[in-house]
Specification:
heterodimer, A: alpha+beta, Serine Threonine Protein Phosphatase 5, Tetratricopeptide repeat, Jelly Rolls, 5-stranded antiparallel beta sheet, 18 helices, 54% helix, B: alpha+beta, D-Maltodextrin-Binding Protein, domain 2, Dipeptide-binding Protein, domain 1, 2 domains, 7-stranded mixed beta sheet, 4-stranded antiparallel beta sheet, 25% helix
Chain lengths: 464, 338
């Protein structure tokens, strides 16, 4: 008993000593952090000499903290970062020493915590900064990694889902000139990081220089893929057209992923339906009949579940028909619809907006060879767009000179799709090649408008 | 500007006001470059082609219409010069056996969709097919031409490469006669391409109406890449059955140009002080091969057997303002009536 008491006393004393050292280390770290924050916050106001002295103070503080917390890899990393940040304030001759000191700090820290991915990224960063680090810093220790790239690959093994380490690794890959690896990591980062910012996205867009790089960087998940498509549609429409197949490939993978998530129960039916609708409304999708059929097939169930049986039936008819690749035009001031020719043709996938309810305006259609028209779907993208079918005249022509009025096969049916008005016009069997949908109402403001690709679509079947 | 206050005050005030109005008016004219243009330039022709054919270069009327609605990568100017048109840069390589051209970035079709380098490649391929499928159509230098997209460095505008089996001194001139076609629309129109308004070229005008044997109405393309052009909003080609009716229409202002007159009409126009006679852009043989012009109709119905249609003169109203450099290929986009 007598022998245990001094032992206990010593144990307590050791514990108190250790806590005291930890407390001191913590306090010194906090002080250093405050200095670091002051430097970063007020950096623009500093002149070069005062900045240099402040960095010296900061580095001393981190060095002191390192003495008291040698096991804390974050403190060692902070010391290394402070040394690197001070580089611009140092004379040229002193900079290699600072870089080497940082590298040594980090290498000793990584020996203590080899599982710390951030330390490996920091070392890789310095190795990219000074590619001849071995000679420069006279380090000849045995290396577990044959190259900086291999170290970065190890980071992916250590922290496969850490968005911070992944992003930083991508930046280091860029510094190494290994763009493919950088873009691959940036893609993975977008796919798993819901907080991937617009600025990060803009940074990635600017890195793309060719089709191969686009293929690598393009995320294959919803909604990230839609951000890319919308960005290219807005900023680089020619590139979107040129690389359409790459975008569509990624979109198909994103749809497959959505379906898998829905079927495995990870995604409830309502957001699943909404995501499919959002994808279906992308103008790019119109260029891929296979993807349209896949989406529409699934949307039939979605709309039926929502209680919109009318549109589910129209969709079913659409999937069993062919969307005819017609040519379109809009004719303003068509005061003589029976004799005025259609001109100014554009493709079926034109994305510029037009309205069907401008007074005396006609929408024109040219039917290419080899198709038999069946029904027309008119759809607005405006939530308050309404169109009275009795204000529409249908006219047809064989030569684009004389247009003859005709009636639809049955009474036009009107419905609503996601709150937007939609009309279905059944066409009678005809040999007309040119069609006019002429508006003879007098709406004060055109409301039934949409991109031309969606405003009216003609469905039918091929004749050969 | 201040006016003196004296007994002459009213006179000076009036003069100041008149001066300022004149100054303002002259600045308006200076801004627009010229007087206000007329809406329409009328052209009298003896016939109209059945369809607008991008390859039928030796039919004079077809050629005149094409000159206004269908531009090529280059343009033939006066004195056998060749200038860049839809292209804005070119490089000659391998001693003229390989040419690399860059398409101007602001080139747009009449429907405002951009002209892409892939369109140029596709349209050349389609036109080659079209020429190959018609044995009667004379070769336009297309047959032996290979057109592809260049391996342009990333971030640079895509360029187009033309490869020839051997150097051809008339290659750039040939390009001027090959219109840039919206290949997708051309494919969709199928056999009907060129009939009615089923055309899709790059040019200052678009075909708005084509009434068989009656008229062709061209309308200015909005936002054409050459600032200030086209000057007149419409060009109206009207068929006249008789030379007398055409001359009467010219004298009364119903049309402004007789494109393909006869010797008798030229002789009569010489005595009319309101008219002028110029050398026609169609003077000489057809470019690219020295073929003769092929007129589907040799004379007006009221003309004598020796009064055949001329391709070397045109008759114009004197009041017409003409851009000579454009008229060098019967391009009326620089022409208007003040």
């Amino acid at each position: 008993m007598k022998a245990t008491l001094p032992l206990l006393f010593f144990a307590c004393l050791l514990g108190m000593g250790q806590s005291g050292v930890e407390l001191l280390g913590h306090r010194l770290s906090s002080s250093a952090e405050t200095s670091a924050q002051t430097i970063s916050a007020e950096r623009p106001l500093y002149d070069r000499s005062s900045l240099r002295s402040d960095f010296e103070v900061l580095i001393r503080k981190w060095e002191r903290a390192t003495h008291f917390s040698p096991w804390d890899s974050e403190v060692t990393q902070s010391l290394a970062r402070a040394r690197l940040a001070s580089l611009p304030t140092l004379p040229l001759a002193e900079r290699p020493n600072a870089v080497c000191a940082s590298l040594r700090d980090l290498r000793s820290a990584v020996q203590r915590s080899p599982q710390e991915a951030a330390l490996h990224v920091a070392i890789a960063d310095i190795e990219a900064l000074a590619p001849s680090w071995r000679t420069l810093c006279e380090i000849d220790a045995a290396e577990p990694f044959t190259s900086t790239s291999e170290r970065l690959r190890w980071v992916q093994v250590l922290a496969p889902f850490s968005v911070t380490e992944q992003y930083l690794s991508a930046v280091v890959y860029l510094a190494l000139g290994e763009k493919e690896d950088a873009l691959d990591l940036l893609r993975k980062n977008q796919e798993i990081n819901p907080y991937f910012s617009q600025a990060q996205r803009e940074f990635t867009y600017r890195l793309i220089e060719n089709e191969g790089q686009l293929q690598t960087a393009l995320p294959k998940k919803y909604p990230e893929i839609t951000y890319w498509i919308k960005h290219y549609a807005r900023q680089q429409p020619a590139a979107l057209e040129r690389y359409g197949a790459v975008f569509l490939g990624a979109l198909r993978e994103a749809v497959t992923d959505l379906v898998a998530r829905y079927r495995s129960g990870q995604l409830p039916v309502r957001p699943f339906g909404q995501y499919l609708k959002n994808i279906r409304h992308l103008p790019l999708v119109e260029a891929d009949p296979g993807l349209i059929a896949t989406l529409d097939q699934m949307l039939i169930d979605v709309y039926r579940a929502e209680g919109n049986a009318w549109w589910a039936d129209v969709l079913r008819r659409q999937t069993s028909s062919t969307r005819i690749p017609i040519l379109k035009t809009m004719l303003a001031d068509d005061h003589a619809p029976g004799s005025r020719m259609l001109y100014g043709w554009t493709t079926d996938l034109e994305t510029r907006s037009a309205a069907l309810d401008e007074p005396s305006q006609s929408a024109g259609i040219f039917l290419p060879d080899g198709y038999l028209p069946d029904f027309l779907v008119l759809q607005t993208s405006e939530s308050d767009g309404r169109l009275d079918p009795s204000e529409l005249d249908l006219l047809g022509s064989r030569d684009n000179e004389r247009f003859h009025p005709f009636l639809p096969r049955s009474t036009p049916s009107v419905g609503s799709v996601d709150g937007k008005a939609t009309l279905l016009l059944e066409l009678p069997p005809t040999d007309f090649r040119y069609f006019k949908i002429h508006y003879r109402g007098n709406a004060k403001r055109a409301r039934f408008s949409a991109p031309l690709a969606e405003l009216f679509e003609l469905y039918g079947r091929p004749t050969r | 500007m201040t006016c003196p206050s004296s007994a002459w005050r009213r006179v000076f005030a009036g003069a100041c006001l008149a001066g300022m109005v004149l100054l303002q008016a002259s600045s308006i004219f200076a801004e627009t470059g010229t007087l206000l243009p007329s809406e329409k330039v009328g052209v009298a022709v003896p016939y109209l082609p059945e369809s607008i054919d991008p390859l039928a270069q030796n039919d004079p009327v077809n050629r005149i219409v094409l000159s206004n609605i269908a531009y090529g990568l280059t343009r033939n100017g006066r004195d056998e010069t060749v200038e860049l048109e839809a292209a804005d840069a070119l490089r000659e390589m391998e001693n003229g056996k390989r040419w690399q051209l860059r398409l101007r970035s602001d080139a747009r079709y009449a429907n405002l969709s951009p002209v892409l380098p892939t369109d140029v490649v596709d349209s050349f391929k389609l036109l080659k097919q079209l020429a190959g499928s018609r044995p009667g159509v004379p070769a336009t230098g297309l047959a032996e031409l290979t057109v592809s997209l260049a391996d342009t460095p990333a971030g640079q505008p895509q360029e187009i490469v033309f490869e020839l089996p051997q150097a051809d001194p008339y290659f750039l001139s040939t390009l001027a006669n090959v219109p840039i076609v919206n290949a997708e629309l051309m494919t969709r129109f199928g056999d009907r391409f060129g009939k009615g308004t089923n055309v899709a070229f790059l040019g200052p005008y678009q075909l708005r109406e084509h009434r068989k044997n009656t008229s062709i109405l061209l309308e200015a393309v909005p936002g054409f890449y050459r600032p200030g052009l086209p000057r007149a909003r419409f060009v109206d080609f009207r068929v006249f059955d008789t030379a007398a009716a055409a001359l009467s229409a010219l004298r009364t202002g119903a049309v402004d140009i007789i494109a393909i007159p006869t010797p008798a009409l030229v002789a009569e126009a010489k005595d009319d002080t309101t008219l002028q006679i110029l050398q026609s852009p169609l003077a000489g043989p057809v470019e690219g091969g020295g073929r003769a012009w092929g007129l589907p109709r040799p004379r007006w119905s009221d003309a004598g057997s020796d009064d055949e249609l001329l391709t070397h003169s045109i008759i114009l109203r004197k009041t017409l303002r003409i851009d000579d450099s454009l008229l060098a290929r019967f391009d009326l986009s620089g022409t208007f009536l003040p």
